[in-house]
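# step 3/5: fold
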Amino acid sequence: MTNDFDIIIIGCGGVGLASAMYAGRLNLKVLVLGHSHGSELPVGGMITTTNSVENYPGFPQISGFQLAKKIEEHARKSNLVTIKTEKAEEIEKLKTCFKVKTKKAEYKSKSLIFATGTKWKKLDVPGSGEFERRGVNYCALCDAPLYKNKVVAVIGGSDTAVKDASILAEHAKKVYIIYRKEKLRAEPIRIEEIEKNKKIEVIYETNLKEIKGEGIVNEVILDKPYKGSNSLKLDAIFVAIGHIVLSDLAKSIGVKTNEKQEIIIDHKNSKTNIKGVFAAGDVTDKDFKQLIIGVADGCTAAHSAYEYIKKESVETCEV
């Protein structure tokens, strides 16, 4: 196998894999590089941390891991698709193509698709770094079983935070949601679920000031009293305060981003401002962040790359 490809897809989450599947069907030679999240997540990306997906057409209910696996298997059906768990470290724009470097090899491609997604935003309070993986967690689905019959808290008020609380309540004896605003920002159906769950309690308009413990987390300090005390005894916290967009590699070759660092695409064809470069999924400036939206845009990006290669008559890579 040579190291020359029609498309290199940066990111091996569900969106990158769907892009590869579609590109393979268009008879294009494809390389998918990941992990886009380092070694934290398997092939399949962020969706693999979701316990139950109920809004993906054709699957009334399926785990995120199972769904990602099905997309991966579909992509691998084409013998033109290669998936490597190598992280893209550097990209160079050549005359008629692109060179992508990993720690293991260099690859050339006529076009690129960025499907790098996002990563968890880390909590920045005293003790958050010290107790990471010792009570400070970022993946409820991964780590919830470790806290059976324990007292835990979710930090944040988004849909992710509320879903995490529901997952944790399946194991823990008590789950707090600590949120700095007066109202949760989750889907109404999610809020109804936690309101009915006697294990879950929301502490509104409150911030975390400090995490304490002896080897592992056993206490957090709040910025205002809760039931008469600023101290809350906990066995763990799960952070769900948002994500950081992984667009730095795209920006290094001149791809334009908005104020949120999201890649700006033409929403009709997933093109960026750089010829031959496309993007899809949560790394882009699409308002609605859902796997089904990213998968659709990934397939669009693959088709646009196919049209670009055909129109530009890119036969070989010239430096």
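# step 4/5: annotate
The chain has a mean pLDDT of 92.
# step 5/5: archive (pending)
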